[in-house]
Amino acid sequence: MRLGIVAGIVLLGVLAGCAPKPLPPDPTAEQLLAHGAKPIPRMALLERLTDKTVYGTFSVDTNTDKAGDAWTEYFAPDGQLWYRDRRTTFRGRWHVPDDRDELCLSFREGEERCARLYELGTTLQFISAAQGPYQGRAISYADKTADGDLEGFVPKKPEPRKRRQRK
Questions:
Q1: What is the pLDDT of residue 9?
Q2: pLDDT band, very low/low/confident/very high, at 76 (cuts 50, 70, 90)
Q3: Is the pLDDT of residue 7 over 50?
Q4: Could you count the other beta carbons within 10 Å of the beta carbon of residue 155?
Q5: Contact 12, 66 (CB under 8 A)
Q6: Whole-number Å distance between alpha carbons of 93 and 114
Q7: Which stretch of 32-36, 67-71, 154-158, 159-163 has the lowest confidence by average pLDDT?
Q8: Residues 75/52, Cβ–Cβ less than 8 Å
Q9: Cα 18 to the chain's mean position, in Å?
Q10: CA nearest to 87, candidates 103, 56, 108, 66
């Protein structure tokens, strides 16, 4: 009986040693893949993002936001991108290049930033493709996606004014 218990403990120890290490807040693509994440190809990116509101969280400190800060984006079908975080709201552009499985965004600065997206469970991890300290690391993740412009980012066109009829 004791031999069975010892063998069980040894087996658990071996299996625990084979399990991937816990993910850091800013995992690399390789770390995500080791945890079973799946890269999202170009056509699936278009389907997953077009006319969707995406709710996410920063994984790292950036120039303007801190790790843990929330953000929301709306990906309009015409390529407009609407963005909001705790400090600001602005409009930019989004597209998925024909030759890459990446999402590319252009913001106020006019600089284009691209990321590869990986699906891990119910979250989308954004791995930066931009040159710099975050290249190849997850800069943020999204844990909720909803159809349409749920946050009312896109300004509504004014209703035409009705003309008064003369008597």
A1: 40
A2: very high
A3: no
A4: 8
A5: no
A6: 12
A7: 159-163
A8: yes
A9: 29
A10: 66
What is the Cα–Cα distance from 1 to 13, expressed in whole angstroms? 19
Confirm if 141 and 123 have CB atoms less than 8 A apart: yes
Torsion angle in degrees (nearest 10) through CA of 57, 35, 15, 12: 30
Q: Are 141 and 133 in contact (CB under 8 A)?
A: no
pLDDT score at 158: 79
Residue 166 makes CB contacts below 8 A (sequence gap 6+) with none
46 burial (CB, 10 Å; 0-12 / 13-18 / 19+) is middle
DSSP H or E segment with residue 45: helix 42-49
* pTM for the model: 0.80
- Give the residue carrying structure tokens 């843990």: 68
Task: Give the pair of three-digit tokens for residue 99.
Answer: 């030759």
Q: Which helix (H) or strand (E) holds 5?
A: helix 2-18
Q: Concatenated DSSP letters for 101-130?
A: S-EEEE-TT--EEEEEEEEETTEEEEEE-S
pLDDT of 4 above 60: no
pLDDT-wise least confident of 5-9, 49-53, 111-115: 5-9
